[in-house]
Amino acid sequence: MTEVHTIYLFLPFQRLQGIPGYEAAHCWISIPFCLLYLIGIVGNSTILHIIRTDPSLHEPMYYFLAMLSFTDMGMSLSTLPTMLRIFWFNANAITFDACVTQMFFIHSLSLMESSVLLAMAFDRYVAICNPLRYATILTPQRIIHTGVILLLRSTALLPPLLIHLLWYPFCDSHELSHSFCLHQDMIRLACADITFNVMYGLALVIFFWGVDSLGIIISYIFILRSVLRIASQEERLKALNTCVSHICAVLILYVPMIGLSMVHRFAKHSSPLVHILMANIYLLVPPVLNPIIYSVKTKQIRVVRLLNHS
């Protein structure tokens, strides 16, 4: 007698998670999350508005900052709908197609942010190491071309990874670990050989975050070498001060990202709260802190904001 195996070619829906064990308090828990989303969206919108309306900020550094703010705002908006549905209405079901779509935006925007930070590191390198040619190297046309290349780079290689999910049989639990869809969370539900997605995902991490972080490190090696040649201590500090905001932006992206990857790979059986906390820090902290850091540390933006409120 032939044994019949039932395999689901796809999951009709997934179930996202709020805060396990605290479902009764989701409405109260939503308050700090809503405040973070509000701060992130309003802060990045303000940065974009100031850069667009003030001609004195139409410079390469601020164009790249506008790209960073646009990416951060997109990151917030890509996770906001499912987060609020869970905390406000306890609606944690999401269709497979919607989950993959959200996954595409979350991961592509994350890759885009890393690419923009690399471009900003190059901007600081040119400004400090080759200031006389700054305007001729980073022309508006080249910045536009750079933005298009970064966008294509961050989106073109991701679809094969996500499309391949359609061919996996999913016959495990429908429960995901977060309030939004992540590839590393979805793939653990597959009951098949996931070697392609694991290896392809690893290649993407190396190609994007590995190359980007290496490029940022190399840029700052040249920056430090150039700064150390400056005789005046005051001029050294002034040059390095222009890099503080960018260094902070790099740290608040890469530290939570590395932490989340470590948790998914080496702490799979740890408390679900650890996974949820790391994922929320990774996706919520950069959009919230970046506009605050750049508003505080960038004199031109601070002055424009004061003038607008006066």
Automatic annotation (TrEMBL):
Q: Name one GO cellular component term.
A: plasma membrane
Q: Where is this gene product found? A: Cell membrane; Membrane
Query: What GO molecular functions are on record for this protein?
Result: G protein-coupled receptor activity; olfactory receptor activity
Q: Where are the transmembrane segments?
A: 28-51, 63-84, 104-122, 143-167, 198-223, 244-267, 273-296
Where in this chain does the record put each G-protein coupled receptors family 1 profile domain? 43-294
One Pfam family matching this protein: 7tm_4
The organism's place on the tree of life at top rank: Eukaryota
Q: Give the UniProt keywords, A-Z.
A: Cell membrane, G-protein coupled receptor, Membrane, Olfaction, Receptor, Sensory transduction, Transducer, Transmembrane, Transmembrane helix
GO biological process terms, semicolon-separated? cellular response to lipid
**What is its membrane topology?**
Multi-pass membrane protein
**Alphabetical list of PROSITE patterns matching this protein:** G_PROTEIN_RECEP_F1_1, G_PROTEIN_RECEP_F1_2
Gene3D superfamilies referenced in this protein's UniProt entry, alphabetically: Rhodopsin 7-helix transmembrane proteins
Family to which this protein belongs: Belongs to the G-protein coupled receptor 1 family.
Q: What is this protein called?
A: Olfactory receptor
Q: Which species is this record about?
A: Vombatus ursinus
